[in-house]
Design a protein that fits this description.
By secondary structure, this protein is mainly alpha-helical. The chain contains ten helices and no strands.
Length: 225
Amino acid sequence: MPQAEIITRARLRTPKAAAVAGILFSVLLMVIILLLRISIPADPMDAGAWLAAGSTPVAVALNLVPIAGISFLWFIGVLRDRLGLHEDRFFATVFFGSGLLFLAMLFAAGAVIGAILLVFAAEPAAMLNSTSLHVARALAYDLINIYAIKMASVFMISTSTVTIYTGMAPRWMAFVGFALALILLIGSYSIAWSVLVLPLWVLLISVHILVDNLRGAPAAERSGG
């Protein structure tokens, strides 16, 4: 390896505490989900009484979404850095692509809900129980509970597969990831709080990576990377 490349890699090495980004993402996403769940009825066809009752918790949740998204991108970077030379192009593409698509769906749903708040602030009477409200609510609901969650399950499956083949985390964490991803694939529409599966799993992986990094070299390097 050229000397210049060695120096560049040393300078760009991910900080040992970078796994905190995954923990931050997990906590923020759980807070976002909690705020939205307690403020917005689960039924997309609700007349919109929640808007008149006060939308401050929803606005707080929407402002946290970009921060959670940035933290998730950092978490993806931490995983790729941990894989190092063991990264497989196929699984890396699926894992990276599904993560980006998950964020895209999350941001899109947040934008739709934000649009509802803006329109209601301008024309509250016309917005309540209107067709536009129902369409927007149904769109946000499907973006989160169908598309975002399915991409989250693909992200978990691909990451768990890479974990088994590279040893970047204990194998039991990979098997837990497979089981939880199956829950997302099958029961996301019928299990009300299934959206919490991803942040809880990311929290588990992030805590392991943080502890392992603070103890010494990443597992992938110890295994020959």
